[in-house]
Amino acid sequence: MLSRLAILTTLVGLAAAAPAKRQSITTISSSQIASYTPYTWYAAAAYCAASETSSWSCGANCQANPSFQPVASGGDGTDIQYWYVGWDPAQSTVIVAHQGTDPTSFEADLTDGKFELETLDSSLFPGVSSSVEVHDGFAEEQAQ
Length: 144
Known about the structure:
Layout: H1 2-17, H2 30-34, H3 37-45, H4 50-54, H5 60-63, E1 69-74, E2 83-88, E3 93-98, H6 106-112, E4 117-119, E5 133-135, H7 136-143
Antiparallel strand pairs: 1-2, 2-3, 4-5
């Protein structure tokens, strides 16, 4: 009797953990995928030193978007993650990039461990809707 109960409990648990039916998947074309390539280079450049992004001289990451015009950059890659902001006339867009997690940096891991949502500081992000929320680790890094 006990083993049947154990088996039944296990089966009920597995049924409860079964994945929900996936929604439809839309196939995108190769050209649609390729349209994101410039942004992958911008993301990679966010790991470059501020002195390199301010002059847009960080090697292949910067050379991939040669028309980019940096406006500001900062961070030290340790206490304050690297970041930069600028204008890409080829994409007709403002680029705001922020270094992600460096798994070799304990402090970066602690920053990423903070994940409560909060609104952006309007003095740092003027004109951004108060409905926009980011995780508090990101907000604190932006405020430094």
